Amino acid sequence: MNSSIHDGGNTSDFGIDTISFGGPLGAKLKAAREAGFTQVMLGARDVVGHPDGYEAAVEEVRASGLRVTGMQVMRDFEGLSGHLHDYKVDVAKSMLEVTAAVGAKVLLVCSSTSTHASTDLDAMARDLRKLAMLAVPLGVNVAYEALSWGRTVNVFPQAWDLVLRADMFNLGIGLDSFHAFAAKTPAEEIDQLDPDKIFLVQLADFMWQEIPSVEERITTARHFRVFPGEGVHSAQVADWVTRLHALGYRGDYSFEVFNDDYQQMPARAVAARARKSALWLGEEVLQRSVPLPNAMTLRRRAGA
Question: Where does the Xylose isomerase-like TIM barrel domain start and stop, copy by copy (predicted)?
Fold first, then answer.
């Protein structure tokens, strides 16, 4: 059955990341589509690691009919110098080409964790500006995300400051609920953002309240995330989505769920879990806080 969650009202803005599934790219795309998703975030490995080659992967993505939310992920780019900087620029050029080839409009870039990187904010901003300039001819936007274990930038207000410092029209911020919850970043900080410069929002939850050490934070992020509504931070996820909507954000949300258990489940079962999250956020959280015009009309008629 191909019951599209697009018919559920506010759910069409929610997509799933291929890193949430085990199995080959084709199975992931099929599971997402059959669960009713209309968009998917791609991991670069799913494309370049395709057994029939990169071109076959691109064709498979295009044939799926799914819109590509974005491509992830460029790591440890900003703050390097000399041969390390040149190396990362070459990597970035290749990743941007892959991003454009699959029709994605966003390349996700995570804040650097490298001990070889400068902590000078102006130098970091220059590098992000350069990356954004490389993306311009390809029609790609760059979303800069704060990793909660980043060396210099580890909370999203810092990422936002660096985006403003770099000052490029196609450079914006990427928000990740996991990192914000793990770092205990106040949700009120969202209110300071420009909704037009939020290029991507990634949503995930986890099963425990506290992550005291950096090591445990990394382990949880890479192995134990769950879909929104499945963990213990459901109220915070709902608050995030309603705040972003009130701010004026009308862009994409992607479920980025690294989970070893989900890698051992059929893709269809994982997609079904993600679908429940999309329905909860789109039909209950958003529709309750920001009623759709049709829903408002129905309520008026019911009360007449």
Answer: 29-277
Closest Cα partner for 17 from 72, 88, 75, 87?
72
Q: Which of 100, 125, 123, 236 is nearest to 175 (CA)?
A: 236
Q: Which amino acid is at 80?
A: L
C-alpha distances in angstroms, 84 versus 94, 116, 143, 252, 276?
16, 9, 22, 33, 43
pTM of the model: 0.90
Q: Which domains does the chain have, with CATH numbers?
A: 5-303 (3.20.20.150)
Q: How far apart are CA 116 and CA 126, in angstroms?
A: 17
User: In 3D, which of 205, 211, 286 has the Cα closest to residue 243?
Assistant: 286
Tens of pLDDT, residue by residue over 118-142, are: 999 999 999 999 999 999 999 999 9
Q: Is 234 exposed, middle or buried (0-12, 13-18, 19+ CB in 10 A)?
A: middle
Peptide bond into 73 cis (omega under 30): yes
Rounded-to-integer distance, Cα 153 and Cα 144, Å: 10
Q: How far apart are CA 179 and CA 189, in angstroms?
A: 14
Distance in angstroms (rounded) separating the CA atoms of residues 289 and 286: 5
> In Å, how far are 111, 169, 199, 286 from 188, measured between CA atoms?
21, 25, 19, 18
DSSP class per residue in 213-267:
SHHHHHHHHHHB-B-TTSSS-HHHHHHHHHHHHHHT--S-EEE---BTTGGGS-H
- Residue 130 forms beta bridges with which residues? none
**Among candidate residues 277, 278, 271, the one with its CA nearest the CA of residue 18:** 271
Q: Quick one: pLDDT at residue 9?
A: 47
Considering only CA atoms, which of 136, 221, 240 is closest in space to residue 182?
221
d(CA 55, CA 240): 38
